[in-house]
Design brief:
Layout: H1 10-25, H2 30-37, H3 41-48, H4 56-66, H5 70-75, E1 92-95, E2 100-104, E3 114-121, E4 126-129, E5 137-145, E6 148-152, E7 155-159, E8 164-169, E9 173-176, E10 183-190
Antiparallel strand pairs: 1-2, 2-3, 3-10, 4-9, 5-8, 5-10, 6-7, 6-9
């Protein structure tokens, strides 16, 4: 939790404001959003006020409630869409709690169905999502460096450098970096 005199991270502040705006657009109280998302009111309130940096799991739950992918949500707090997104301008978001770094590689565009994301997990990182942000979401996971264990539903997949897994996500997923080194992968996401 941040101290009162700490300035929130600019990305967290924009993200919190956007989350509050999405809730307000639907006319939901924090209590209603808590019921729909399964996230406590206090956690939602702290995220909206940028008192805490939201985790990947929290954002995934909220994306599910709001019918967005994480890239779409994050792109909504960035600048106007552009067809070219230089490396230095690609939005990076970090979930320090779980050891996950996410770079939105594709230029954001709400009218398109596909996007590329670079993911990095530190050794020992383990991220579990209880549901996809959009049911039936198509994912292609291509490991660039290291090893990655992915569980989709009840099926475990071990991916080594160069391996690519394609799946459609309907239920829980889990990404684990069990190796001694971190893992870097590309996630191609295609909306149904």
């Amino acid at each position: 939790m941040k101290h009162e005199d700490e300035v929130p991270d600019p990305m967290d502040a924009r993200l919190g404001a956007r989350l509050a705006e999405l809730r307000a657009q639907r006319g939901w109280s924090l209590g209603e959003l808590a019921e729909r998302s399964g996230v406590s009111r206090s956690t939602l309130s702290r995220a909206e006020r940028a008192e805490t940096s939201p985790t990947a799991a929290l954002l995934n739950r909220l994306c599910g409630v709001y019918g967005r992918t994480m890239s779409q949500l994050l792109s909504e707090v960035e600048a106007e869409p552009t067809p070219l997104l230089r490396t230095a301008d690609q939005p990076v978001w970090e979930d320090r709690t779980s050891g996950f770094l996410r770079r939105s590689v594709s230029p954001p565009h709400t009218g398109l169905r596909g996007e590329l994301v670079e993911g990095r997990l530190t050794p020992g990182a383990d991220i579990a999502y209880d549901r996809p942000p959009v049911p039936g979401l198509e994912q292609h996971i291509w490991v660039l460096e290291g090893t990655l264990d992915v569980t989709a539903g009840n099926t475990d997949h071990h991916l080594d450098t160069g391996d690519c897994l394609r799946l459609r996500v309907w239920g829980p997923t889990q990404f684990r970096c069990a190796g001694p080194d971190g893992v870097r992968y590309v996630l191609a996401v295609v909306l149904p």
